[in-house]
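RETRY 2/3 - previous attempt timed out on the joint model. Re-submitting the same 829-residue input unchanged.
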Amino acid sequence: MIAWLLDDSPTSRLQAGLGRAWRVWTALLRNPLAVVGGLIILVLVAMAVFAPLIAPQSPVGQDLANRLMPPSAAHWMGTDELGRDIYSRVVYGARITLLIVAMVAVIAAPVGLVVGAVSGYFGGWADRILMGITDIFLSMPKLILALAFVAALGPGIENAIIAIAITAWPVYARIARAETITFRDAEFIAAVRLQGASSVRVILRHVLPLCASSTIVRVTLDMAGIILTAAGLGFLGLGAQPPLPEWGAMISRGRNFILDQWWVATMPGFAIILVSLGFCFLGDGLRDVLDPKQGEKQ
Amino acid sequence: MSVPLLEVEGLTVTFPTARGPVDVVRGISFSLGRERLGIVGESGSGKSMTGRSILRLIRPPGHVSAGRLVFDGIDLLALSERRMRALRGARISMVMQDPKFSLNPVMTVGEQIAEALLTHAKLPRRALKARVLSMLEAVRINDPERVAGLYPHEVSGGMGQRVMIAMMLIPEPDLLIADEPTSALDVSVQAQVLDIIDDLVTGKGMGLILISHDLNLVARYCDRILVMNGGEIVEECRASELHLARHPYTRGLLAAMPRMDEDRDVLPVLDRGAWTTGAGT
Amino acid sequence: MSATAIHLENLSISYGKTPVVHDVAFSVAEGESFALVGESGSGKSTILRAISGLAPEWTGAIAILGKPRGHAPDRDFAKVCQMVFQDPYGSLHPRKTVDDCLAEPLAIHGIGGRDARVRDMLAAVGLDQRFRFRFPHQLSGGQRQRVAIARALMLSPRVLLLDEPTSALDVSVQAEILNLLKKLRREQGLTYLMVTHNLPVVSFLCDRLAVMRHGRVVEIADVSALKTGRLADPYSRELYAASGGALQPA
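RETRY 2/3 succeeded.
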């Protein structure tokens, strides 16, 4: 099987593609930090998918008799001010975090990629206008911009996702533009143009695949920031609304008891730190493997 | 040619790869007097690595080993990095392929040539300037005063390469290694630059190692030729007797080159199975 | 075979404000192999780029097979005239297999039977089928240049523009590619317009040559004049001597 994947002379498109993917995969496995990051993300995904099986209790079920209990065998992470099991809430919170992260990536990355590629490929006026807009977005602090959008759209998890996506795309546009400019005049692009390919085809089929890997790396590294922004919005009460177990909102609630019942705010905080770190490690590993300047040589 | 300037015996350069270590130069031996030696080969033949390893310019993870690597009685392999630095430039110089990457973009041409000299000798300011200008004149730059004040991006490729040569030759080294010194230049400029190198080398009685992929060019400017293939020397001959070369690789290379009065319908192609280089894969 | 494949008239080309080529005119007959010779900066490559549509700022007239040429690349023109680039390392998309690269022109023009066509073309340029799904970094320079030639021939063009097709290759590989180009021209009746600085290559592959200097054509000569060293213009003779040729009285 592995010999088939690493065959120097693949016999089908599928085998060639899989062989490439396999080489990236084995290179990634050689990087211990990337493996740690990947495992953390894997645990996050598993927690989100199997939350009902993993969580011992309902994330919203109140038990006022047992409020603000410290960590114990019954409640691994203690209980909050309404007697809800914090561990269960953290597990269910993984769903919300993953949803936010995935939606932001799905919305922001393609928008940024296309804007950047178009801007870099055509240059001239298209470039000036698109990059002008990008710069306006870039010049404002992310959280404040997101706050303004949520304030305008109304609090809630969907609006938080939209607001974060709106603040996230300009970075990808910048990266895609910079990459595109480096090979806009390359002969392989000229060759496709001479074959009669339309600009749309050149950008979609030939330019974007080359920008994709650096964008993937950047998105992975940005995940931590996205999680923190989402948590920040939640903390300020503008993200997910109670009783949703969003990690940022949980910290916000725990703030009142931070001196006497430290676990209420700390446990979701740990979750945020751990997942952010996981994405950073994975992103670093991906950069080493996917970076076109280094990756092809391996 | 009683005492050779440079003696190389069993020179091997090894690079580690994913599939185990690979010898890019495989135990080659040659010696050089105060003469012009050409090393010819195609890409991957190890010719550039040979030149670099003499100056100990192979960076880790690359590894150089040799039975003997002696320059003018000095064992180059035993030398400390500090003494090696003192030797480079002062006694052995190297001209690289592209002047654009070898010249410092934020220093004027004159400053760079002066610096090359100052590294190895202390001179008063006026004498220094005179030496720089006379060196620029020696590489046939017409108005040295003006050119000395230019920055590298303001000079053409041919002029840049002449500046490089001036820089390399001003400390009056005993051995000049020129690695594809003209392949980035136009044919008419190529001849000028090589003529300059040739004049200076013969005039000062230096040794020259000219590394190139171009058989004809090396045959024209050297006394002796080494042909390399797969990290080994496959042929050694006098430049004037290149057409009598016996090794199938050399003969193949000579035949594969189109001639000015070409009348063959098909160019003979190298049959790489016709000889064994011991190069393995 | 007397039809005109490439006809240039009063062609002047500029990059931005800088004029690069001045008033160039020549015609290449169908089936002929014509060389543009000169040193860097002589404007020889710029002429190829203008013909192909990559250098749109020109005045004058360019006609390919009797049809006037517009200023930008276009679909119909692509089927008539293709280009092979100098650098085999830069002219192939680094993330696409040989198969993708060769099938792309067929996909652009909606031509069917891609599988068979790609296989036939690989055979025509002397590449084994096992190279079909390799990526460019798994190929040598000569193999890459074969792929680039195959790509240019996928649409069965009549005219091929060759921009220093062998100058980045080793001598032994150069011979293989030159032989291939000669064979393809004979088999498919192609017209070549080749840019090069290498006079012996011209002698091997071309019927006529134009010598360029500072953006102008200084001499158009038959290749026999090159072979016998009887070029007329002083600059051509200088170039000839610098390339190692033995001059004869013109």
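The first helix of chain C runs from residue 44 to 52. Closing ticket.
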